[in-house]
Amino acid sequence: MSLFDFDRRQCLQVGALSLFANGLLRSNAQATKSDPENQKTGRNNDSQNSCIFIMLQGGASHIDLWDPKPLASREIRGPFETISTNAEGIQFGELLSDSAKIASELAVIRSVKHNFNNHIAGTYITLTGSEKQQNRDREAHSDDFPGPGAILNYTENGTPKVPRSISLPTWLSIPGPSNRMPGQYGGFLGSVYDPFLIKGDPNQKNYNPLSLVMNKDMNSSRIGSRLSLSQQLDSSARLIEEAIRRRQDSLFQSAYDLVTDGRVRKALQIDEESKEVRDRYGRNKYGQSFLMARRLVEAGVQFISFNAFNQEWDTHGNLQNRYKQIVPIMDRGFAALVSDLKDRGMLDKTMVINTGEFGRTPVINNGGGRDHWPNVYSSVIAGGNVKRGFVYGKSDNKGSEVAENGVSPADILATMWRHLGIDPKTEIFDRVQRPFPISSGRVLNEILA
To answer: Residue 174 pLDDT more than 50?
Structure first.
């Protein structure tokens, strides 16, 4: 179980903060930095920018969504028509009717590619940029390259009042003993840097994530007492490295602030939003999670990842009917999120990335679906200082290969890190102190205004 993945029974039995103690003590063996206080992090501490990372896990079809081929034969262009958008020269698939209305706010990258056609490997490279893996299913491992949320926690200077990174509404998982899909966690940095997970579907009635709710008997005074006791106990554990002890203190304080400061708890009270706003996003897991992400940005959270349910976008068959179910709800929520951020004056500081781990084959198969295709696919970015109403890169006439300006997942991550105020060349260290840049890619200056 992840350090920050709480459930009701644990909160009632031991209180919110003792969970941090147990998790941190277990994390000692995975500690990696000898002195995190003194090493250069590459962070621009003045940056107040944030990122919402939407992961359409399973592999969304670029041809049926962001990169239609209206002049191709039917078996290539698929079952859907092509529509114009409000950005001159940009066309989308017909199911993206709401995104078509905000295309003038989007940078569409139509030339993303990598070499992995396995879901797990594709997800891993999308979230980490790392190509050091086999093209197969596997569970998360302590030697993995860390995910963005963990890196953000690792490079944090001081003690944040709210979490730097939050995942919702679930972890991506894979069958196996740990049930953990790689790319989301601390990896070689250690589980102490895992992001918080906010569980549950915010569209459900009486949604109230129990991980951040205090037991009715746990007032601020008692929380403070537990904090003091835990710190005393930890100070006597001489086998814990000094660096991890400092990180523990930071996380204990962060946990204390979570349940007493209340900004994140208030952000999670989604029923405070008006009916009109909630309806605008869509009354479903996608829409309400995207609305939650906006509220968390307002609360000061810097990185929020949305995980579509495991391989929800995997359409080897019956693509037409399946996409009629899932595309409109994603489309509505995504368009509402971008529009809402703009209306609130938040879009310049909030980058929204919408991507899958690969695209789909250019030819419809005998089952009426498309298979895995990492040779070329699309990722969409809104906000930050990206050019708007802009297309970068090009696939060939079949949507089969990159025709112009190939982009790697690592390039997208490097561009994200630049937006977040962190130099993509910033080094992090594994358990034997080997240095790694947080991104091996290049910043896509061509898409920046």
So the answer is: yes
Number of residues that make up the chain: 449
Range of the domain at 158: 31-209+268-447
In a domain, 257, yes or no: no
pLDDT of residue 338: 98
Residues 6+ apart with CB under 8 A from 441: 129, 408, 409, 410, 411, 412, 413, 414, 415, 424
Structural domains of the chain, count: 1
Query: What whole-number distance in Å separates Cα of residue 25 and Cα of residue 31?
Result: 11
Whether residue 22 contacts residue 252, with contact meaning beta carbons closer than 8 Å, is answered with no
417 in any annotated domain: yes
Single pTM value for the model: 0.85
Secondary structure of the chain as H, E, C letters: CCCCCCCHHHHHHHCCCHHHHHHHHHCHHHCCCCCCCCCCCCECCCCCCEEEEEECCCCCCCCCCCCCCCCCCHHHHCCCCEEECCCCCCEEECCCHHHHHCHHHEEEEEEECCCCCCHHHHHHHHHHCCCCCCCCCCCCCCCCCCCHHHHHHHCCCCCCCCCCEEEECCCCCCCCCCCCCCCCCCHHHCHHHCCEECCCCCCCCCCCCHHHCCCCCCCHHHHHHHHHHHHHHHHCCCCCCHHHHHHHHHHHHHHHHHHHHCHHHHHCCHHHCCHHHHHHHCCCHHHHHHHHHHHHHHHCCCEEEEECCCCCCCCCECHHHHHHHHHHHHHHHHHHHHHHHHHCCCCCCEEEEEECCCEECCCCCCCECCCEECCCEEEEEECCCECCCEEECEECCCCCCEEECCECHHHHHHHHHHHCCECCCCEEECCCCCEEECCCCCCCHHHEC
Residue 263: C-alpha distances to residues 242, 251, 297, 420, 444 (Å): 30, 16, 11, 21, 34
Q: What is the CATH number of the domain that holds 151?
A: 3.40.720.10
Q: How far apart are CA 200 and CA 291, in angstroms?
A: 14
Domain for residue 12, yes or no? no
119/56 Cα distance (integer angstroms)? 11
**Could you read off the pLDDT of 268-288 as tens digits, one per residue?**
899 999 999 999 999 999 999
**Which is nearest to 418 in space by CA: 357, 351, 334, 346?**
351
Predicted confidence band of residue 253 (pLDDT cuts 50, 70, 90) = low
Note whether residue 15 is domain-resident. Answer: no
The residue type found at 162 is: V
At residue 100, what is the residue type? A
